[in-house]
Amino acid sequence: MPVTLVEVAARAGVSPATVSRVLNGNYPVAESTRQRVEQAVRELDYVVNAHARALLHATSGIVGVVLNDASDPFFAGIARGIQGAAAETSRLSVICNSEGDPEQEFAFLDLLRGHRADAVILVGAAPEDEEYRAEATTRAKGMRSNGTRLVLCGRPSPGPDAPGDVVEIDNGGGSAAITRHLVQLGHRRIAYITGPDGRTTTTSRLAGFRQALADSGVAADENLVVHGDFSRQAGREAVEQLLAAGREFTAVLAANDLVAAGAVSALRAAGRRVPEDVSVAGYDDLPTAMDVWPNLTTVHVPLEEIGRKAVELAFGPADTQTVVTVPTELVVRESTAAAR
User: What Pfam families does this protein's entry cite (predicted)?
Assistant: First the structure.
């Protein structure tokens, strides 16, 4: 039979109410008493009944995390930060992988709402169409009525009346900074490989690139903009496409580090040296950036910090919507050099 809270209380020499206070952490208890209760919990191998706690306190202790792609190190880094911060509040993180499918995302939101999750954190770029925004707003309102806090991480709010806090990434600013770096090195023919079309992150990073070129007095050549996705294969195919079309370029700026790694591979296969012949830069500062040779110049995004900030907002004041913008930072490594 499972050990009961009454048995823990008897072993610790305290009342069941005191054991409950120690386990819930919601009432001051003398340090010596807390230690006795924790020792009794360990000795008896007592496990809190999460279902009973949810019924009693109208809370599940669950933090739902919906990722666009759980296999992508970008999302894994943010999830690590969320899980660590949630664990510090004695909450369980439930990771859901939507694979970027809005219908799957909404299905996970409904499931987590049904399980009375304390909070749900949506991570990654969102579709930009109006139908998605309207449906996302409806889901956000439903979660609020259910007592579940919503945090959007790396995506904007779907609308002005959608409840939920937001952790934004300065995608445009980071893209502008790395574009200026290439321009300062003398590059004027800069190829750009985008992420998937119709996604907020893709739009912001491409806009930052174009704005930095305009601010620097460099004419943008749309023939050097290749639309892809956030994969290594997309970077390889984009460079192959540019070379096959005879496009002249001295630098490649990729939507993320995986795309940049694919670009380096394609350039090397074509006999182009990096950075002697073509400079290559990425975005996100994933572990991939240091695995590629030469190591990638990129934009550092503090992924774990972003995840922790999302949890902080999830359990912070609920009376107003909070929007936090996390800055990015240019990281210069060996993959970029002066234009030849």
Answer: LacI, Peripla_BP_3
Q: What is the pLDDT of residues 184-229, one digit of tens each?
A: 999 999 999 999 999 999 999 999 999 999 999 999 999 999 999 9
Give the CATH architecture of domain 57-168+303-328. Answer: 3-Layer(aba) Sandwich (3.40)
Amino acid letter, residue 111: L
Contact 64, 121 (CB under 8 A): yes
Q: Which distant-in-sequence residues (6+ apart) come within 8 Å of 160 by Cβ?
A: none
Query: Over the range 164-186, which residues count as b (16 or more CB within 10 Å of their CB) and which as e?
Result: bbbbbbbbbbbbbbbbbbbbebe
CA distance 99 to 226: 23
Q: Which residues pair with 225 in a beta bridge?
A: 192
CA angle 336, 290, 75 (to 5 degrees): 110
Half-sphere exposure (CA, 13 Å, Cβ side) for 175?
A: 27
- Give the global pTM: 0.80
Alpha-carbon gap, residue 227 to 209, rounded angstroms: 14
